[in-house]
Write a structure and sequence with these properties.
Strand order of the largest sheet: 1-2-4-3
CATH architecture: Alpha-Beta Complex
Order of helices and strands: HEEHHEEH
Number of domains: 1
Radius of gyration: 14 Å
Number of strands: 4
Structural class: alpha+beta
Largest sheet: 4 strands, antiparallel
CATH class: Alpha Beta
Distance between the termini: 45 Å
Shape: globular
CATH topology: Aspartate Aminotransferase, domain 1
Amino acid sequence: MDEGIRKNHWMVKLLASHPAFELIGEPEINILTYRYIPASLREAVRSCTLRPEEHDRINHFNELLQEMQSQQGDSFVSRTTLCGIEGMPNSVVVLRVILANPLTTKAHIQSVLKIQQEIARDLELSFEYNTDS
């Protein structure tokens, strides 16, 4: 359990240092929730000017990201919808990681995030997630 908590803290720092990811809520023991923010919406998220329809795009984007990652079969991160988070809209689709396996390494975690970034890049190319629509 202690090792999972240490890895969780390490992953929090990794996610916080990357502009594409946003931590959601406070990590709980070895459970971490976050979401991917498409490049066209990052400034709106940072400046707290995200419109409801943009928030919906981020939710949909993360649903697709998680589904595609699961279908690839190389790694798995679950997904859930959270409600009642201070400063956030009613519902937020998040990616959820539970770091419980003592054999999970930092390299595994980095690989999962790299896969998510690759899938997200393809999604951003395939779909228009811009602030104009």
